[in-house]
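Treating backbone geometry as a discrete language has practical consequences that deserve illustration. No coordinates are needed to read the tokens, only the vocabulary itself. For completeness, the protein is quoted in full, as a sequence line and a line of structure tokens:
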Amino acid sequence: MLDRSQDAGSAVISVRGLKTQFGSKVIHDGLDLDVYRGEVLGIVGGSGTGKSVLMRAILGLISPSKGRISVFGEDARSLSPAERSQLEQRWGVLFQDGALFSSLTVAQNVQAPMREQLDLSQELMDELAALKIAMVGLQPDAGPKYPHELSGGMRKRAGLARALALDPEIVFLDEPTAGLDPIGAAAFDELIKRLQRTLGLTVFMVTHDLDSLYAICDRIAVLAEGRVIAVGRLEELLGHSHPWIREYFHGPRARVLNR
């Protein structure tokens, strides 16, 4: 059975000795990482360091060559199909650009996890979808619209509403502010932080956005050389000596951190 007894502040995700590869190309080798309950953890790294690959490995979308990944103290690979389904209800995922089903309305997209995992009446699903749509700051008239009728920022909010459909404890975000203008990105950061505080979420966020790291992350994990080379609060990483970390946080686009 799945264990729901972890105390606040404990590691809800634990990765040990992770190795992932595609053919002969090794992405991670000996990667360790803990994600703690109630925190917003930002995952950063250069192109090809496997930020999204790490997220997909935790979600079970790809199989690592070595290592152990546990979520809520459970190794998902050792669970029965029923237990795996139960575990998946405890997280939600926002992929880049929302990854909405183009043939479904926003409301139907939000209801998709409910149809897959729960046995609810259509009336109740309609009510829950409207609630989730409102939670992410969309107007009620967004519900019957199709993804192509929405702006990029609205699609991301709709995708976030779907990620929240089953009242998850963990939300995984893959480049949530990519493609948004600075005002839209700041508004989305504020939305994530507000929802995290209100709902008590743990947030695992892959990002390259320095403003997001500054605004909402409690800790930041840096991927390089096939592993996590540093993890800590922003102010701790600002003084790190690794060349990539110094370039990333003190380079020409790091003006926000010097305010």
